[in-house]
Amino acid sequence: MIQEHGLEYVGLGKIDGPLVFVRRITDVGYNEVVEIIDREGHPRIGTVLDVSDEVAVVQILEGTDGLSNANTRVRFLGRPMRLPVSSEMLGRVFDGLGRPLDNCPMPFSGEERDIQGDPINPWSRQYPRDFIQTGLSAIDGMNTLVRGQKLPIFSGNGIPHNRVAAQIVRQAKLLQEDVQFTIIFCGMGVKNDVAQFFVRNFEETGVIGKVALFLSLANAPSVERLLTPRTALTLAEHLAFDLGMHVLVIMTDMTNYCESLREIGTARGEIPARKGYPGYLYSDLASIYERAGRVKGGEGSITQVPVLTMPNDDISHPVPDLTGYITEGQIVMDRELFQRSVYPPIAGLPSLSRLMKDGIGKGRTRDDHPTLASQLFAAYSKVKQIRGLAAVIGEEELAPLDKIYLHFGDEFEQKFLKQQEFEDRTITQTLELGWDVISILPKSELPRLSDEFLNQYYRQDVAERAANKQAGKSDSEAKKVAVPAQDAAKLESDQE
Amino acid sequence: MANSGARFCPRLEERSTVAENGQINPGAKNGIIARISGPIVDATGMRSAGMYEVVEVGSLRLVGEVIRVSGDVATIQVYEDTTGVKPGDVVLRTESPLVVRLGPGLLGSIYDGIQRPLDQIQKHSGAFIRRGEKVSPLDAEKKWLFKPLVKEGDAVGKGKPVGVVQETGSVEHRILPKPGECGTVVEIVPEGEYTVESRVARLKGESGAIYDVFMAHQWPVRNPRPILERRYADAPLITGQRVIDAFFPLARGGTAAIPGGFGTGKTMMQHALAKWSDADIIVYIGCGERGNEMTDVLTDFPKLIDPRSGRSLMERTVLVANTSNMPVAAREVSIYTGITMAEYYRDMGYDVAIMADSTSRWAEALRELAGRLEEMPAEEGFPAYLATRLAQFYERAGAVTTLGGGEGSVSIVGAVSPPGGDFSEPVTQHTRRFVRCFWALDTTLANARHYPSINWLTSYSEYAEDIRSWWEQREPSFPALREEAMEVLQLEARLQQIVKLVGPDVLPDTQRFVLIVAEIIKNGFLQQSSFDKVDTYTDPERQVFLLGLMMEFYRRGKAVIAAGSPVVRLHEMKAVRKLSVAKSTVPNGDKQAMADLRREVGEELEALEAEYQK
Fold first, then answer.
1. N or C: which end of chain B has fewer CB within 10 A?
2. Closest approach of B34 to chain A, Cα-based (Å)
3. pTM value?
4. Whose CA is closest to A42, among A2, A77, A76, A9?
């Protein structure tokens, strides 16, 4: 991909971390590609970050190890970074700049594209509404993914987000048509065995022919990671909007990407915003995430599932925080569920899919889906409250209704959320399971479900069993009155 | 890139000083680029350039604005991606500040941050926005039926219309002379079809100066349009959102902020307000947010019917979309573009509401640009002038008497996206100083899917007192009702602290009843679904009905408990569920359904009262 035109300079002015300063230059454009040839004659690629009459600041994507001020030749190529794109790139493995890593030649390509891409015109976007069935109840039922959405997985170190991502890749399909997704896997700073895990997974399930991998592993220079998602998405755009394919892009791990951005920002002496990350982190992440979507009149789509690990499981850390502000929801992994060996450990409450409302319901999944999901959320949130209370006063002291709620909470986690790694549930199965567990609660606790749905789907027998079970328990117990009413009133005045 | 051949800058002498409108601009002095750092470009030879002058940068003629002049060097923020721009490229001056073009055709349009129509850009460059596109904001071909309101010899005062154009089915566009221009009509065109370029009248001012009045005129975005005087904002902007209208109302000409972490529903609320507010015109500014959200508005609004005019909601809406992946400098200017258009419609005598989503992204654009300019940062890297800029923006809202003597208003609702949902960060804190209405969104409520997730304990509205007399004229009982309901909610919050420690069972029945009523208010009044056809909009009459009935249930329930009834009897009542779902079962204006519900609840209570009567 390196071409031979452009001016060549000998010697560098200064080397500082991943940046080099080239002096006395002419006709150099902003964001232009630079080729640096070191003492041994090996070329390295860089881009221009800042340019004036006298000096160009170049970030070297492959690191500055072994570069010296003298004996280094610099060539400005007079064009921004480009990627030759073609559908023959499927089934292949590339590095972050799009060069083959699998010892095969560069695929033939008739077209080169600027990897920065142009922003999609909001007027030309097609609103995403096609339901994607992932076979995971926690996602399909509660946080539905739709085609053209960007829905990240927020996880922590040690939590099996990669297995969940792989399961999504394996099982994702559209209800109406039996269209397989084309998959682009973009690994940034991931460990070698994580990459191996995905490759093996793709091979075992036979999808490897429809996957293109872009890998910038943990031991690759960190600056290369800045280009990896852009390279991957450039191919995705070609496949989706030129060739009409439905592309699913898995990007892992976005936290590593942001670390690289911080590294470059610090090297340039920029004024940092939060936690040392540059002030433009939001805009920079947006230029990646906003490349998901559909366009009017086009067949294809780009659906993004970025994966990021929250440092110290902190959702308010700048990386998950700014990501959540850009993406259309988030799937949050919960360490507590993971420790109780609930797989997938998808947290009930903080997870959200913003495009769910238009992708589900009558004619798309089932007419009771929206209100059922909303009622499950409300009830589960009450479970969390009651568990807090039970931790203080003990489960035995709870009111009968609260105990029914706890029973619901356990069943919801064990029957609805939990499933096997190779279990592919249909949306109908998911919704029926949802009714199985919500029916544990009496009808009066379900204000969000209409009478019509209650008549149609509510399991009277489940409710009765739950109530009997509860009554049986409380009858056998001696009824204890915890605090007399006067005392509670006194407690209240004490509080004030 | 398709146009890479053209990337090499032509020689200086080949470049003519042709401005956008095709006229030769002999006074223009061109500059030469000395440095490029992202969207910030330094150019030399710009000694005579003015602050905020618009320039065209490089061979692609990217639009930029001068933001600092130091001796010979001007610093320019460029509204488009600067890839490939080189030192030595030319900077072309236009000698004009950044302006918006105001005239018929704004409504129903979608613009980017510098008022380029996105639908026209699509025609030129397809689904992706190419750089250097130059498109006129208003369709120059389209003919509008102009009806004159004046005849030759009439005096036209400042800000008075010379004629009208029916811009959309619901909005009449009044053709105004530029602010400050007035005089005797010396020429007026007859009724007929004209384009936005047409001159429709000539006025002769007192000094003898002749003013040409065109169908459209321009106004610099950073200058507020003049008004005669400010009025006191004492009428509410009815939004149909119960928690807002009843508890935290916004006045016409008021300012409100919606702060909330991600996923708390800021955008959903902005959409609901844009749909149902009883303003005449809505300006929706998508500032650094998601592209799909603008698409949602674009696909949703044309299908929705304005309950007042019976016409499509899109007919009263202007969209300004500068999504997060579009250039950051244009994001900075997009809110000024939006508010200038709003002021223009205000000057015609309309009530305009602006939705700015999100002001935090705008503040971040300021921070990014300030960082590139190597300015000394204040808090969290934001520039020290952040508060001043926020104040300038929010102060452009207001209920006013227009130059022409009419009444109009601009209300601003700004979303704020605090990092980590932490309201102590600079943008939220400064915004709080300049708005009078604060709708704090709450993550816990949002997690339980209680939308709108406005926290009733931390939100406030200073307008509640200002508009009290408006309510008293219409529903004398309402202010008291509102206070009573608020008391129940606050009492409940206190009781919940005990419940958290020892459980609800230990509370006396009167207090447990408070919990039940608070639950009804939360489920049946505060929570509102924008997906339910009946629930999505609640007119003031129905709000009074719903809250009134709930409070009646509370008062009579309290009395019957005092008479000896156990609280369980009230909890078991069918009325509890009926009151909780009435928001979606009793439609606006359905007198029969309201009377039925009132009777049913009343009968159930009477039965219980009869049992415990002494």
1. C
2. 5
3. 0.89
4. A2
